[in-house]
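Researcher: Good morning. I'm working through a list of sequences from a screen, and I'd like to move beyond sequence-only analysis. For each chain I'm collecting a predicted structure so we can compare shapes side by side. This is the next one on the list. No need for commentary yet; just the structure.
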Amino acid sequence: MYDITPLKSIDFGATGMAAILQNACFVLSTVSGTCFMDRSFGWEPPVDETSESAKSILSAEIVEVLESNIPGLTVESIDFEENILNGHIYPKVKVVIEDVAEI
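Model: Good morning. C-alpha coordinates for this chain:
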Protein backbone atom coordinates (compact mmCIF):
# COMPACT_ATOMS: atom_id res chain seq x y z
CA MET A 1 0.00 0.00 0.00
CA TYR A 2 1.30 3.44 -0.94
CA ASP A 3 0.40 6.95 0.20
CA ILE A 4 0.09 9.59 -2.51
CA THR A 5 -0.53 13.33 -2.36
CA PRO A 6 -0.63 15.98 -5.10
CA LEU A 7 2.67 16.15 -7.02
CA LYS A 8 5.26 18.62 -5.74
CA SER A 9 8.18 17.87 -8.09
CA ILE A 10 8.88 15.70 -11.14
CA ASP A 11 11.60 13.05 -11.39
CA PHE A 12 12.16 12.79 -15.13
CA GLY A 13 14.15 9.56 -14.69
CA ALA A 14 11.52 7.68 -12.70
CA THR A 15 10.87 4.08 -13.77
CA GLY A 16 8.80 1.15 -12.54
CA MET A 17 6.81 1.67 -9.36
CA ALA A 18 8.26 5.17 -8.82
CA ALA A 19 6.95 6.24 -12.25
CA ILE A 20 3.49 4.78 -11.58
CA LEU A 21 3.26 6.56 -8.22
CA GLN A 22 4.50 9.80 -9.77
CA ASN A 23 1.84 9.50 -12.50
CA ALA A 24 -0.85 8.98 -9.85
CA CYS A 25 0.40 12.06 -7.96
CA PHE A 26 0.32 14.02 -11.23
CA VAL A 27 -3.28 13.00 -11.88
CA LEU A 28 -4.15 13.94 -8.30
CA SER A 29 -2.68 17.42 -8.77
CA THR A 30 -4.32 18.16 -12.14
CA VAL A 31 -7.49 20.23 -12.31
CA SER A 32 -9.69 19.36 -15.28
CA GLY A 33 -9.50 21.87 -18.11
CA THR A 34 -5.78 22.58 -17.61
CA CYS A 35 -4.24 19.94 -19.93
CA PHE A 36 -4.19 21.44 -23.42
CA MET A 37 -4.65 18.26 -25.46
CA ASP A 38 -7.15 16.62 -23.08
CA ARG A 39 -9.39 19.13 -21.32
CA SER A 40 -11.34 16.38 -19.52
CA PHE A 41 -8.16 14.99 -17.86
CA GLY A 42 -7.99 15.58 -14.09
CA TRP A 43 -10.65 16.33 -11.53
CA GLU A 44 -12.90 19.28 -10.78
CA PRO A 45 -12.47 20.79 -7.32
CA PRO A 46 -15.70 21.70 -5.54
CA VAL A 47 -16.05 25.45 -5.12
CA ASP A 48 -18.12 27.10 -2.39
CA GLU A 49 -19.00 23.80 -0.71
CA THR A 50 -18.93 23.14 2.99
CA SER A 51 -15.93 21.18 4.19
CA GLU A 52 -17.80 17.89 4.69
CA SER A 53 -19.68 18.22 1.41
CA ALA A 54 -16.44 18.97 -0.47
CA LYS A 55 -14.79 15.88 1.05
CA SER A 56 -17.64 13.66 -0.16
CA ILE A 57 -17.56 15.10 -3.67
CA LEU A 58 -13.76 14.92 -3.83
CA SER A 59 -13.62 11.34 -2.59
CA ALA A 60 -15.86 10.05 -5.37
CA GLU A 61 -14.11 12.09 -8.03
CA ILE A 62 -10.60 11.12 -6.90
CA VAL A 63 -11.44 7.40 -6.94
CA GLU A 64 -12.91 7.69 -10.43
CA VAL A 65 -10.09 9.73 -11.96
CA LEU A 66 -7.24 7.68 -10.44
CA GLU A 67 -8.68 4.25 -11.23
CA SER A 68 -9.63 5.23 -14.78
CA ASN A 69 -6.26 6.82 -15.64
CA ILE A 70 -3.73 4.55 -13.89
CA PRO A 71 -4.03 0.87 -14.90
CA GLY A 72 -3.73 -1.58 -12.02
CA LEU A 73 -4.30 1.08 -9.33
CA THR A 74 -6.98 0.63 -6.68
CA VAL A 75 -7.86 3.32 -4.14
CA GLU A 76 -8.08 1.92 -0.61
CA SER A 77 -8.84 5.07 1.40
CA ILE A 78 -8.82 8.85 1.21
CA ASP A 79 -8.08 11.20 4.09
CA PHE A 80 -8.01 14.97 3.96
CA GLU A 81 -5.79 17.57 5.52
CA GLU A 82 -7.50 20.92 5.91
CA ASN A 83 -6.17 24.43 6.13
CA ILE A 84 -9.18 26.20 7.60
CA LEU A 85 -7.68 29.69 7.39
CA ASN A 86 -7.34 29.68 3.60
CA GLY A 87 -10.07 27.14 2.81
CA HIS A 88 -7.85 24.46 1.23
CA ILE A 89 -8.41 20.72 1.46
CA TYR A 90 -5.49 18.44 0.56
CA PRO A 91 -6.18 14.76 -0.25
CA LYS A 92 -3.99 11.96 1.09
CA VAL A 93 -4.81 8.78 -0.80
CA LYS A 94 -3.81 5.21 0.05
CA VAL A 95 -3.54 3.08 -3.07
CA VAL A 96 -2.68 -0.50 -3.97
CA ILE A 97 -0.93 -1.19 -7.26
CA GLU A 98 -0.83 -4.58 -8.97
CA ASP A 99 2.52 -6.11 -9.89
CA VAL A 100 4.36 -3.67 -12.19
CA ALA A 101 5.48 -6.51 -14.48
CA GLU A 102 1.85 -7.35 -15.28
CA ILE A 103 0.90 -3.78 -16.23
